[in-house]
Amino acid sequence: MSTITADKFLDFFIHFDPNNPNHRRAAYMLAGVIPDAAMRDSAEWVKTYRTANAQPLTAETVQWSEWDARVSEHFTVGEVFQFDDFRRQRVTAENKRRIVKLAARLDVLRKQFGPLGVTSWFRDPVTNARVGGVDDSYHLTGGAADVFPLQFNPLEFEQWCEQNWNGGVGRGIKAGRRFVHLDDGPKGVWDY
Ligand SMILES: [Zn+2]
Q1: Residue 121 burial (CB count, 10 A)
Q2: For residue 88, how far is its CA from the centre of ligand 1 (angstroms)?
Q3: How much distance in Å is there from the Cα of 134 to the middle of ligand 1?
Q4: Distance of CA 119 from the midpoint of ligand 1 (Å)
Q5: Within the chain, which residues score under 50 in pLDDT?
Q6: Which of 62, 146, 158, 174 has the largest CB neighbor count within 10 A?
């Protein structure tokens, strides 16, 4: 017997459509198997659910010193710096603002295509040169991320980005690489 992970369970809420009779029926079935203790008005999850929204993340509120801390709903500090302290120590306040903005835009893709892996995001000049990045790379500002879908066809994802991403799109998948380069620069498409 397999079980649904918390992440998959979250999909239920994300995709719930109150006008869909099957969704409503599923919700009632779920309510029927939830323990009484969890259905009380005083239950912890009810209190959490009703608590005012946390302040949206900004460059100032992100816990940059924690790898697991979020820079947006779905992306972490560790992903931004690839768990490399050398990179993290070289990020500026302006870089952080661009990182948080780009992360919010990547969240939209995450909701549509499922989990996204990140192979590179912010790069200081030394790291950028080492990995062969161009001198004016958007990665130097935190305004570019190389991503790939974990549960969606990468080429279709890349083609969707070509059409719809409002910024630069580097077609890595088409060139046989693992990732699509997305940045916050002018709209444009190029091949690796
Ligand atoms: Zn890139």
Answers
A1: 23
A2: 17
A3: 10
A4: 9
A5: none
A6: 158
